[in-house]
Prior knowledge:
This protein is 25% helix and 20% strand. The chain contains 10 helices and 16 strands. Strand 9 (341-342) and strand 10 (351-356) form a beta hairpin. Helix 4 (74-83) packs across helix 6 (121-132), helix 7 runs parallel beside helix 8 (208-218) and helix 9 (286-298) packs across helix 10. The termini are far apart. Residues 36, 47-48, 196, 227, 242, 267, 274 line the site of ligand FHN.
Amino acid sequence: FLSTAIHLPAQSYQPTPENQKNREWFQDAKFGLFIHWGVYSVLGDGEWVMNQQQIPLKAYEKIPAFFNPTEFDAKAWVQMAKAAGMKYITITSKHHDGFAMWDSKVSDYNIVKRTPYGKDVLKMLADECHKEGIKLFFYHSQLDWHHPDYFPRGNTGGSWTGRPENGDMNKYLDYMDAQLSELLTGYGEIAGIWFDGMWDKKDADWRLQKTYGLIHKLQPGALVGSNHHRTPYDGEDFQMFEKDLPGHNTTGFSAEQTVGALPKETCETINNAWGFNLKDDQHKSKKELVQYLVKAAGYGANFLLNVGPMPNGKIQPEHIASLQGVGQWLSVNGETVYGTRGGPLTARDWGVTTQKGNKVYIHILDWFDESITIPAWGKKIKSAKLFSDKTPVKFLENEYGITFRIPKAKLDDVDTIIEVELK
Length: 423
Ligand code: FHN
């Protein structure tokens, strides 16, 4: 996975006005639902199960026959996302196992042809999203453990796979482009394509310009992003930081800073796994989720929060409950997150700032004292109050910074928000 390569892209791509408008929408939206769902869910051991349990291709191909998500209800998923305060959904159209979750015409290795369920879940979800004003992105894996021409396979190959040991990358990329064309022509407006997996073959020619050009030709407004852990390539519309606040690089991935300030997104999962994992009970608390969202906003990034639905099509009840908790918090405090941009102060140990017009929201996430002094940011303050109940907050500006005084009883364990109006 590791890559430290820095490349200087030739910036020839010019986003259309429609695309630029969508970039603004994206940055305002702040919160999205990430969904890892595929035939791997049947085994309840995450989306890497084929690789981690070393299941040969021929054996893995038997799994779709057991995938019958009769409880899948697109409406329930979309309502859950809305109740959580999420503005978009990013779902796995195809993960690394190569299985298409839609009615692909260029491969019968898909949900309609190979499962007893036999229905196109992406179509159902797209229709419901469009009806409900939720935007839909497709996560699409470039790495493919099924297509015979995907070779060599970097650190994910091996003789146990039972796959051919050679292949024509161009043929594979033609296939990938054909599948992307299906997704961008048969499912109405698509908000964007979220790529993942080119880290598997770092030195291959991925023909990115051809693929990105195709996407922008078919849907000029669609935002292209890729989880390649590198500086963005020409033709990308947003930058991803997997499991990392922008620039933090805590997971060992190279999260280089943006060249040319693209909108940013960070993704994290609600427990430890991306795809459904029976043994995973490391569920994040409402507080952790809210604070991650707020921190991301302070960094000017969206938060894409993942759930891995069960093979029956339902989402784990404990995840629904935490999402509802975040939604309740946002229904009260959303004004300090949605439509904001990263605030005038970069992140601090105690929290972050967000900004909208002449208002700055100081989010105190980790602080226990009655007064807090923060660095001044060059603009004079007109007024300060607690966002929660509008109680005026006393403040003092001097050469050491700005000191705010908040009665102890008003400190909120999740987020104490001071709303500051600038002069
Ligand atoms: O390998 C994948 C993983 O399964 C999952 O999809 C995450 C989501 O960001 N991305 C990958 C690794 O970078």
